[in-house]
TrEMBL record:
The keyword Membrane applies. This is PPM-type phosphatase domain-containing protein. The lineage of its organism: Eukaryota, Viridiplantae, Streptophyta, Embryophyta, Tracheophyta. Residues 142-153 have a biased composition (Gly residues). Residues 127-141 have a biased composition (Low complexity).
Length: 455
């Protein structure tokens, strides 16, 4: 019994395999029949199209409306055009050509047609790409072009080549266009500018940025006294909002505190702190380093917060009156790292490409502004006072764009050669820094100290 059942199972499996093969053969035969019927329909449609005289070799008038073709008609229309192109190429060469030769001859024909249209002052736009748009002139008026047939058989539009644009004269001046934070157009200041004052000279040069972030401020004849004056050089970062604010308000705030406090150093420190507090109240995120001097009663009061620098020339010898507030100074780095705010908020000081930075971003440890780093970046300045003596010749105040490339003694030597302390000495220092690869903004101010002595 067991042998009989196994024999029956084998016969059943064999029958199923034969049935599967039969179905496959049947499906193949049915597919061939469908393809044969479809080819017959294509030929019949081709004959119908021929009877309607749809021939791409005849130019179509752009003024006469055309009925859209079905997808079958579009297919046959493209096929007829390819046949006409092949016949044209065979007539031109006098023999059947290969596909590669046809492509080369077709490209030559296209180039010849384009050159002819170009000489006529026409621009060819394909019908397919221009069907959804229309040409317009500078005033917004829509223009109409003449129609024609493209070199590939498709309908095209031809229009006159527009006249050459003539830029207004203002674009060739020293003013440049930029985009402010709101995306509006604004005018940039000149790339270089200078000031010739009564007791000082100054020159500035914008670096690689679109906006000049350096600034300056000065007040002379304070309280009607020609021997009292205030000067400041400012280096902004993250925009020029802070630099502009400091230039306008730092000197005023210091002079106001002079009347209330009485002590010059306390007034200067209070002026820096008030300026910082007022700017932060505006909610703007930029910041600015500043170095300033106050000349009063035959004394020189020097203050700085950041990396702007003040250098005194004593009989031609350079004397740096300020120290840069950078994190390369161990005392400044430890001040930030040991602050409670720094530890509690997870702050860090990071050295990147040889430069120490707070939170990996700002390279100075003191500045006015910088709202997002205010817990660690203080605005309290370091202040130094010294009497003016006969050996005090002049001061050089400059942003780090100068001091990063020019040594302090080298700068004093350049200015000393100009006995009259003219603007040329400032411009020479700027050119010297730029020639050594500086890409930052540069501001240089030279103050003549001879007129501020008191007898």
């Amino acid at each position: 019994m067991h042998k009989k059942s196994s024999t029956k199972q084998k016969s059943v499996v064999k029958s199923m395999i034969e049935l599967h093969e039969f179905l496959l053969w049947g499906f193949s035969i049915v597919s061939l029949v469908i393809v044969y019927i479809f080819e017959g329909l294509i030929k019949k449609a081709n004959n119908s199209m021929a009877s309607l005289s749809l021939n791409t070799s005849t130019p179509l008038s752009p003024s006469s409306p055309q009925q859209p073709l079905s997808w079958v008609g579009q297919f046959l229309h493209r096929d007829d055009h390819n046949k006409d192109s092949n016949n044209f190429l065979e007539k031109k060469t006098g023999a059947a050509v290969s596909l590669e030769e046809k492509r080369i001859l077709q490209q030559e024909n296209d180039q010849t047609t384009r050159k002819a249209n170009h000489q006529k002052g026409l621009i060819i736009i394909s019908e397919q790409s221009s069907s959804s748009s229309s040409s317009s002139d500078c005033s917004g008026n829509k223009g109409s072009g003449s129609g024609g047939i493209g070199v590939n058989g498709g309908a095209i539009k031809l229009r006159k080549r527009p006249a050459k644009l003539v830029l207004p004269e203002i674009c060739a001046s020293s003013l440049e266009l930029c985009h402010d934070q709101m995306g509006k157009n604004c005018k940039l200041e000149k790339k270089e500018f200078e000031i010739q004052g009564r007791d000082f000279v100054m020159a500035c040069k914008r670096g690689s940025r679109q906006v000049m972030e350096d600034g300056y401020g000065f007040m002379v004849d304070i309280l009607g006294d020609p021997k009292q004056a205030f000067f400041a050089v400012i280096d902004g970062h993250g925009g020029r909002a802070a630099a502009d604010f400091v230039a306008e308000n730092l000197g005023k705030n210091i002079v106001k505190k002079l009347g209330n406090v009485g002590e010059e150093e306390q007034a200067i420190c209070a002026g820096y702190l008030v300026t910082d507090r007022e700017f932060l109240s505006q909610g703007v995120g930029s910041g600015a380093c500043a170095a300033s001097i106050l000349l009063k009663d035959g004394e020189l009061h020097v203050a700085n917060a950041g990396d702007c620098r003040v250098v005194l020339s004593r009989n031609g010898v350079a004397d740096s009156l300020t120290m840069d507030h950078r994190l390369s100074r161990e005392d400044e780095r430890l001040r930030i790292e040991n602050s409670d705010t720094f530890r509690l908020q997870g702050g860090f000081v990071f050295c990147r490409n040889g430069v120490w930075r707070v939170q990996g971003s700002l390279a100075v440890s003191r500045a006015i502004g910088d709202m997002h780093l205010k817990e660690w970046i203080i605005s309290e300045p370091e202040i130094k006072k010294l009497p003016l003596t006969s050996d005090c010749e002049f001061l050089i105040m400059a942003s780090d764009g100068l001091w990063d490339k020019v040594d302090v003694q080298e700068a004093v030597d350049v200015v000393s050669k100009d006995k009259k302390n003219t603007i040329e000495s400032c411009k020479k220092l700027i050119e010297l820094s730029s020639s050594r690869g500086n890409m930052d903004d540069i501001t240089v101010m030279v103050i003549n100290l001879q007129k501020f002595f008191t007898t």
